[in-house]
Amino acid sequence: MAQHPRIPDIARLSGVSTATVDRVLNKRAGVRSATVQRVMQAATSLGYLPQAEAHAHAALQSQPLRLMVLIPEGSNRFLQMLGDVIGYAQDHWAPYNVRCQAAYIESFNPDALAQALLHHGKRCDGIAFMALEHPVVREAVAQLAEQGVPTVTLISDLSNSRRVAYVGLDNRAAGRTAGYLVGRFIGPGARPGKVALIAGSRSYSAHEEREAGFLHVIEEMFPALQVVGLREGQDDAQKNYQQTRTLLEQYPDLVGIYNIGGASDGVARALKECGRDHKVVFIGHGLTPDTRALLIDGSMDAVITQSPQTAMMSCVRMFTNLRDKREVMSGVDAVRSQVIFRENLP
């Protein structure tokens, strides 16, 4: 056996399955560090691997991959949930030998984001972040790429950049979905009226793409509706409240609102105060405790959402794929959007 060792021999000696041995020898993720060491010791003792290779493999596995997730500060509850996932889901990533941390940065400030990227890039092995479309952010990503620190954009992408992957919705399709829902909810033939959009900021390509998708569907399918322009609320509940109050005063025939970003509770508060919460169709993003309550009381009609847990797991898999010299998207499922109504709340 020592002269002609095979995978079943290693499996017997290490007390694991042949599939586990295969994962370890081919450096695939999903095996606990202790099991990896046991398999490598068995492979070395049987002469299946040179001792130097086994030592190098063991050294690699003993050092957890250090990942940082940069999250914008503010009252966006979905982003707060994302930060919570990073805090409580460490055990889920233990088989991948990964340690994840979240750092909160100033929202809508490209200089602050670029500085955070370069700062954390000195002490971690990969960074996931919600991108702002700006040259200083693109340059910071390029510098990290030169230094061998991969970056993944999360929720909102960064065009023409050296990030390795994007994790998030097809935002143009999400905007088209919102436009279709608004038009259909308004009623047969989409009676004449005005529709408003509120975004966090056009600095997010995600918000620009959602706006474009929404406008295309309204123009194509619901020509009786007039879109009165986009306002920015910076994902802040109080600013969204003020923007909505202004819209309702300015346009008495307002029949629909699409909140492209977060802090939908501010929009709903204004609708309720003006007695318009069951008269204006309201579509938003991100299933959170707040939007869940708004769906239940009827002040929101639908929420387009994605799973923060799935998004983070996709990031972890991408970074471990890079560490293990695999294709970055290997085993990573595309992020799928869900449309949540009061009647199908999970």
Topology, please?
Blueprint: H1 7-14, H2 18-25, H3 33-45, H4 51-62, E1 65-72, H5 77-88, H6 90-93, E2 98-105, H7 110-121, E3 126-129, H8 135-146, E4 151-154, E5 165-167, H9 171-186, E6 193-199, H10 205-221, E7 225-232, H11 237-250, E8 254-259, H12 264-273, E9 281-285, H13 289-297, E10 302-305, H14 308-323, E11 338-340
Task: Report on this structure.
There is one protein chain. The model has no long low-confidence stretch (mean pLDDT 91). A six-stranded mixed beta sheet has the order 7-6-8-9-10-11, sandwiched between helices. It has a five-stranded parallel beta sheet with strand order 2-1-3-4-5, with helices on both faces. It has 346 residues and is an alpha/beta fold. It is built from 14 helices and eleven strands. It folds into three domains: 7-62, 434 Repressor (Amino-terminal Domain) (Orthogonal Bundle), CATH 1.10.260; 65-168 and 309-336, Response regulator (Rossmann fold, 3-Layer(aba) Sandwich); 171-305, 3-Layer(aba) Sandwich (Rossmann fold), CATH 3.40.50. Helix 12 links the parallel strand 8 and strand 9.
Widest sheet: strand order?
A: 7-6-8-9-10-11
As a percent range, the share of strand residues is 15-25%
Given helix and strand content, the structural type is alpha/beta
CATH superfamily of the largest domain: Response regulator
Whole-number total of structural domains: 3
What is the tally of beta strands? Answer: 11
H/E topology pattern: HHHHEHHEHEHEEHEHEHEHEHEHE
